[in-house]
Write a structure and sequence with these properties.
Blueprint: E1 13-17, H1 21-33, E2 36-40, H2 84-87, H3 110-120, E3 126-127, E4 130-137, E5 150-156, E6 159-161, E7 164-166, E8 173-178, E9 180-183, E10 190-191, E11 205-208, E12 222-226, H4 230-239, E13 245-249, E14 268-271, E15 274-277, E16 282-285, E17 290-292, E18 295-298, E19 302-303, E20 309-310, E21 316-318, E22 321-323, E23 338-340, H5 349-365, H6 373-389, H7 404-415, H8 422-437, H9 449-463
Parallel strand pairs: 1-2, 1-9, 2-3, 4-20, 9-23, 11-18, 12-13, 12-18, 13-14
Antiparallel strand pairs: 4-5, 5-8, 6-7, 10-19, 15-16, 16-17, 21-22
The protein binds flavin-adenine dinucleotide.
Flavin-adenine dinucleotide (FAD) binds at residues 17-23, 40-43, 48-50, 71, 73-74, 80-82, 87, 131-132, 184-186, 188, 231, 308, 342, 349-350.
Amino acid sequence: MVQTLLKPSPCRRVAVIGAGAGGLVAARELRREGHHVIVYERENQVGGTWLYMPETEADLLGRDPARPVVHSSLYRSLRTNLPREVMGFREYPFVVRADWSIDPRRFPSHTEVLAYLKGFAIEEMVRFDTEVVKVELLKGGGGEEHGGCWRVKSRKTRTTKKDGIDWSGGCEESDEVFDAVVVCNGHNTEPRIAECPGIQRWPGKQIHSHNYRTPEPFKDLVVVLIGYGTSSVDISLEIAPISKEVHLAIRGPSKIAMHDRGHGFSNIWFHPMIKHAQEDGAIVFEDGTSIYADVILHCTGYKYHFPFLDMDGVVRVDDNRVGPLYKHVFPPLLAPCLSFIGLLSKGLPFRVSELQSKWVAGVLSGRISLPSVEEMMEDVDNFYAQLEAAGVPKHHTHVILTSLVEYNDWLADQCGFPGMEEWEKIMLFAAYESLQNRPGTFRDEWKDDDLASKGCEDFVRSIS
Ligand code: FAD
């Protein structure tokens, strides 16, 4: 095992992988700190997840690792599940702005988020149509004498020609050396599939929510959705008016029909998880009840995936835990030269990425110190032990909803940045509660106008 030794310097050559929300804010903070940054982005625009793509993958469950990947998992009707006041970056609030806003709602459509990110991006730092295919540590690690520790290999995904775009790209490769690499490739693209006995031979159609775009293909069908996250709730409510029946297979004791929550759909039912699927088309649930269905829609989340990282076991993905990582960002043995932004699942992705980026940028220049490798390892071990003691499954390592405020404030403190305002905390938790209790209406009915006004006052003060 090798530890990278990097002398503090205010000017590092840093590669950022991905120009989604995480990569864009990382680039901005690294440049602000004085580092020289190149952002690699395999698409031809910034935005990552928020760059809606109507096309889907041919492999609807995403099982084939060699399949051509469609990055975004957005559906056409998607609106944010957070109010804009708490969703945006602290230093570039997601307020309605005359120069780019197209949807002024508090929970706007994905088009507004993309417009916001385009307004935020410093595009000159981004190398578009360029996919990172390999990141490797140069021998010896502490490569001051090599002019950098990391080799980043990339290839052109397509080449722009004078008369438009040539989609036949993919052969132009390049090799560059950097002092540090910041990984921001997102984690909502590689489907996680529910494996139930018999499902391989079940004759119906299976699709992961990554490949759901519009309700029309589900017209008159009996659909089983597995999982009960935001996508599953949104999609079930969207297809219910045209599908024959909608069945949600979920963990936990929630056998409450959705119409009991005031949505008025008599064709939505809740079930426990699937026990097994049969060759005759039946789906049998854990309580012994069964139905015949046409489609199973897996709304079962995503896997962390870093196909370009060759880390010789120093960082691994094990049952969807990326580790070991100090505070979900730095692998102790490779800190600060390798870092991950935006790994947390749920919570406040933009805000947390902003703080993580400030932290990484400050640590790389030596302005902020990290504990010793041993101390970071001990912290990680303690964190894993706490999760285990609390019965949290390994694949939930990066879901820290209950300690989100504490984590956010810890990062802010490291960076000398203000922690979360009181109004933000109240708004955030009210948003989660209404998402749970009023899934069909929370985006259009709320009672916290006073907090929204408070937020706007704060934004005006902080940016004037
Ligand atoms: P991404 O946005 O995924 O960006 C990663 C970028 O890396 C992409 O541009 C990709 O092309 C690029 N990339 C990947 N691999 C490579 C490579 N090898 N080389 C070069 N480039 C590469 N968050 C909210 O705050 N509010 C919401 O309402 C909300 N709703 C969501 C709804 C859905 C359906 C999903 C899937 C997510 C939602 N999120 C929401 C979470 C959302 O993912 C985050 O807000 C945020 O956009 C994540 O940004 P990111 O930069 O970490 O990743």
